[in-house]
Specification:
Layout lengths: L2 H8 L17 E7 L4 E7 L4 E5 L5 E7 L1 E6 L2 E6 L3 E4 L5 E5 L3 E6 L1
Antiparallel strand pairs: 1-2, 2-9, 3-8, 4-7, 4-9, 5-6, 5-8
């Protein structure tokens, strides 16, 4: 059996974007990994939804899967688009607002 068939037979391949759907009344999220040392969450925000200014006790990594959001950190707003990644330092106030429907992964 070729290696690619062995890998496919032993691993379940998943499409992350299909695991959460957009909801007009509130953002959706799904916990992907929940360990003491790491949490990984998948989010779907409809246009206009967001997260108010907050901090996290540990650094986090935000990975944009699709769409566009306005991400504000240290008083500076920047546009994040699908495929981009940004590191969020610990204890630094940040917020985000969906410029379009968008999905992201947050690793903290």
């Amino acid at each position: 059996m070729p290696l690619s068939e062995k890998v496919s037979a032993s691993l379940e391949i998943q499409n992350l974007s299909e695991q959460v759907m957009y909801h007009p009344e509130k953002f959706a999220h799904k916990l992907l990994i929940d360990r003491e040392e790491q949490k990984t969450l998948l989010f779907a925000f409809s246009k206009g939804q967001g997260l108010k200014t907050h901090t996290t006790p540990k650094p986090a990594l935000l990975v944009m899967l699709e769409g566009v959001c306005n991400f504000k950190v240290n008083g500076i707003t920047q546009l994040l688009i699908a495929g981009e990644v940004i590191t969020i330092p610990a204890n630094v106030p940040h917020s985000l607002t969906a410029a379009t429907d968008f999905k992201m992964i947050l690793i903290k």
